[in-house]
């Protein structure tokens, strides 16, 4: 896995094989960030990365100048890897070990962008629960975006705040924007 742009462009993130992760592919990540380049100023936003895994998305934001990034994962080895890699890359990353669903119910943080990359076999009800928690708890700042990565076999376009989706191979990014 490599960082595709920014001051860390080309740096590789090599995770131990024992970690239970499915990192976003470079092709999908590049497509996602091409979309975001036209919508946001990376230096001005706060990001929450849910199901952060090895931090591929978090480090991509950091490489592009985002200063306030919170990465959430419940796996201890992922958290350890995230912290170690952030230190090696000299990136400020707030790493939190927590179940994402518990975190969404308790966090006082708000963000401009929340990215969720749950396991592709997550139940439809749990995909919906992510959007519901973000919307009902008002975890996004004004004009904020929730992006959920999922497989092409999961359909999320029926969810209340759904706006659009983009597909890259087997990966789909669904974009949600909360009502003002």
TrEMBL record:
Keyword entries, A-Z: Methyltransferase, Transferase
The record's PROSITE patterns line, in alphabetical order, gives: N6_MTASE
Q: Has UniProt tagged this entry with the keyword rRNA processing?
A: no
Spell out the molecular function terms from Gene Ontology.
Answer: methyltransferase activity; nucleic acid binding
Q: Which InterPro entries match?
A: DNA_methylase_N6_adenine_CS, RNA_MeTrfase_RsmD, SAM-dependent_MTases_sf
Q: Which domain of life is it from?
A: Bacteria
CDD domains annotated for this entry? AdoMet_MTases
| Record-level GO BP terms | rRNA methylation
What PANTHER family is this protein classified in?
METHYLTRANSFERASE
Q: What is this protein called?
A: N6-adenine-specific methylase
Lineage here is: Bacteria, Pseudomonadati, Bacteroidota, Flavobacteriia, Flavobacteriales
């Amino acid at each position: 896995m490599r960082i595709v742009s920014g001051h860390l462009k080309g740096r590789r993130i090599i995770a131990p094989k024992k970690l239970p992760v499915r990192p976003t592919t470079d092709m999908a990540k590049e497509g996602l960030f091409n979309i975001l380049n036209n919508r946001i100023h990376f230096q001005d936003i706060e990001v929450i990365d849910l199901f952060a895994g090895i931090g591929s998305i978090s480090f991509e934001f950091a490489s592009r100048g985002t200063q306030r990034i919170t990465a959430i994962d419940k796996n201890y080895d992922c958290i350890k890897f995230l912290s170690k890699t952030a230190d090696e890359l000299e990136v400020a990353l707030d790493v939190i070990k927590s179940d994402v669903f518990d975190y969404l119910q308790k966090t006082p943080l708000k963000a401009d962008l929340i990215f969720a990359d749950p396991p592709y076999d997550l139940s439809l009800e749990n995909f919906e629960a992510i959007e519901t928690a973000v919307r009902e708890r008002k975890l996004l700042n004004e004009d904020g975006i929730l992006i959920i990565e999922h497989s092409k076999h999961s359909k999320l376009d029926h969810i209340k705040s759904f706006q659009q989706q983009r597909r890259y191979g087997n990966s789909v990014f669904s974009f949600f924007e909360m009502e003002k």
